[in-house]
Amino acid sequence: MTLLVVDDVVVRYGAVEALKGISLSVEQGEVVTLLGSNGAGKTTTLRTISGLHAPARGTILLDGEPLTGKPPHEVAAMGVGHVPEGRRVFPRMSVNENLEMGAYRDRSHLKEDTDRVFQLFPRLAERREQQGGTLSGGEQQMLAIGRALMSRPRVLLLDEPSMGLAPLIVQTIFEIIKQVNDEGVTVLLVEQNAAQALRLADRGYVLETGTMAMDGAAKDLLVDDRVRQVYLGEG
Amino acid sequence: MSFVDQFWQLTVTGLLVGAIYAVIALGYTLVYGVLQLINFAHSEVFMLGAFGGLFAVRALLPSGNINALLSVLLVLAGLAFGAASGGLAAFALERTAYRPLRRRGAPRLAYLISAIGASLFASNLAGKEFGRDSVNLPKDLFTYNTEVFSVFGARVSSQDLVVFLVALAMLLILDRVVSGTQLGRGIRAVAQDADTASLMGVNVERVIVRTFVIGGLLAGAGGFLYAMKFNASFTMGFIPGVKAFTAAVLGGIGNVRGAVLGGLVLGLVENYGQFFLGADYTDVVAFMVLVLILLVRPSGLLGERLGRAA
User: Fold this and answer.
1) Interchain CB contact of A88 with B (< 8 Å)
2) ipTM value for the complex
3) What is the mean pLDDT of chain A?
4) Of the candidates A14, A223, B231, B270, which lies 20 to 30 Å from A29 by C-alpha distance?
5) Is A113 a domain residue?
6) d(Cα A32, Cα A23) in Å, to the nearest integer?
7) Is B105 on the interface with A (CB under 8 A)?
8) Which residue range(s) make up the domain with A187?
9) Is there a contact between B223 and B163 (Cβ–Cβ < 8 Å)?
10) Are B219 and B23 spatial neighbours (Cβ–Cβ below 8 Å)?
């Protein structure tokens, strides 16, 4: 079953066309990764799905229901969880309060879901009263992911979760993404760290300056000559 | 009389006026928090609240004697109508002067001009409709307005006590609302990161409107308190408005507790300063404080976030 469909979406910033009619789809239960260099439009794609940008053309469907034109809080209510680029934890709220924000629309499972997040990220449990802004980069990333999970999303959009983190932490984050996916959450993962993303994902798309350049099974992209050259930094 | 003799009287008056500044300052600081915008028309919300409360009391005032219980009920009615008028005014202000600009992504300067325009409009409309003379509460409303107790020799009247306690109650309630309710969480989230708040399911537009209304409720009730202590006129908003703005900056704009602290400190400084320099200098002292903070500590006493306000 196709959970998320992005069809022929165009996004403009003033005169600049950031997305020039891109399409992608994510099946229920999949991990799909969206690769591309800086400025290719990866973040714009996620922000458009979430309703932070209005597309000039095209449709976005979640489980057959249109998301296009809906404001972000309605998109969130429909089951889209978004871990934004740069983590964006609320700096002057505690870890607990940040998680509460994730459950803003429905607090009925607050206790249960907070416990689950602390189980996934024991380091957050130790810092539950600490302000978000004082956490390390890795802890902030964990908090941002935990916060998004608090809304029990049907699809989780992750924007460069490995950015600026030490390799060991990146490893942990990727393991958690895998675990979350195993528990049934569909994932759309934007990454610069192409090798690691492709090893985790079922399928991948490659975005080049606002156009979808390639797509395919992750294991095929991982051995594709062009992907290896440009995104895996191999020879 | 020396400063020492006068100290407690000045302190009582300073805290009293300061509590009213604090109530108004919260409106500036809350709106600044969610929009990074100084709502310069907030002073007229205060003025309209004062008239709303006064007219309500006058309309409800029975002929004949007023006993203490009736007096208390009338004051409560005045507060309620003052708050309602302020809330309504703030709502209308947001709809007409700010929302259309936000929809168009207007530059910051446009908001300022719009605020000044709305402010002049509201003030002059009030002058035309309510008359240009100052309006007082019925004289006999506080016939029992005698000294209830004294603090180290400083006289505290029942009216002073009412004004201070009501202001204090509003400050405490607001603090609870911001720290412990769904709306408060929404306000804080929008203030810290509006885009991310919307990703969490916060309806940012609704939070903005409600923030304006909360600020308006407080300013409106504050206006009635001010009118109870002094009087109401169509120009009454400007000076307390700028002072409350000073209080908000003094405490650290965007910081709720800072606004309260700033209001009380400003009230005290202004009254102590007045003793040394004379009553004519009250406003001069207040604005010197504003200039000094901006020079020395622009982020205010409790503020740390001015740099983030892009």
Assistant:
1) yes
2) 0.95
3) 95
4) A223
5) yes
6) 13
7) no
8) 2-230
9) no
10) yes
